[in-house]
UniProtKB/TrEMBL annotation:
EC number(s) given by UniProt: 3.1.26.5
One BP term from GO: tRNA 5'-leader removal
Taxonomy of the source species: Bacteria, Pseudomonadati, Pseudomonadota, Alphaproteobacteria, Acetobacterales
UniProt keyword list: Endonuclease, Hydrolase, Nuclease, RNA-binding, tRNA processing
Name this polypeptide is given: Ribonuclease P protein component
Role: RNaseP catalyzes the removal of the 5'-leader sequence from pre-tRNA to produce the mature 5'-terminus. It can also cleave other RNA substrates such as 4.5S RNA. The protein component plays an auxiliary but essential role in vivo by binding to the 5'-leader sequence and broadening the substrate specificity of the ribozyme.
GO cellular component, as recorded: ribonuclease P complex
SUPFAM superfamilies recorded: Ribosomal protein S5 domain 2-like
Catalysed reactions listed for this entry: Endonucleolytic cleavage of RNA, removing 5'-extranucleotides from tRNA precursor
Top-level taxon in the UniProt lineage: Bacteria
Pfam families: Ribonuclease_P (PF00825)
GO molecular function: 3'-tRNA processing endoribonuclease activity; ribonuclease P activity; tRNA binding
Length: 116
């Protein structure tokens, strides 16, 4: 995650992105993106359901997803978009390079452009 980006924390924000945003399912993650129509830094939210595992497993999956967003946020600055990244059971055992590729592909599939 880039330093200037902020987090989505309230349930209502997550629900708004889920209801109005574009969805891009991948083997390692599901990405939901909603254009806000401003030039502020992208806001990110992360969620992993109990189906994925116990709290230790879910937290590890969430950490991996945050790291993917942080690394790719350095090379691709996103603006004016809210993004929710949902962990799947496949996220846990997936190679990190594959997660990076999944995130890149999901961004393009959801129509999120650099500086959009």
């Amino acid at each position: 995650m880039a330093d200037q980006s902020t987090r989505l924390k309230k349930r209502a924000e997550f629900l708004r992105v889920a209801a109005k945003g574009r969805k891009a399912p991948m083997p390692g993650l599901v990405l939901q993106a909603l254009e806000r129509g401003d030039a502020d830094a992208a806001r990110f939210g992360f969620t992993v359901t109990k189906k994925v595992g116990n709290s230790v497993v879910r937290n590890r999956v969430r950490r991996r997803l945050r790291e993917v967003v942080r690394i790719l946020g350095r090379e691709q600055a996103l603006e004016g978009v809210d993004i929710v990244v949902i962990g799947r059971s496949g996220t846990r055992g997936r190679r990190f390079e594959s997660l990076l590729a999944d995130y890149r592909k999901a961004l393009s599939k959801a129509g999120v452009k650099e500086g959009s």
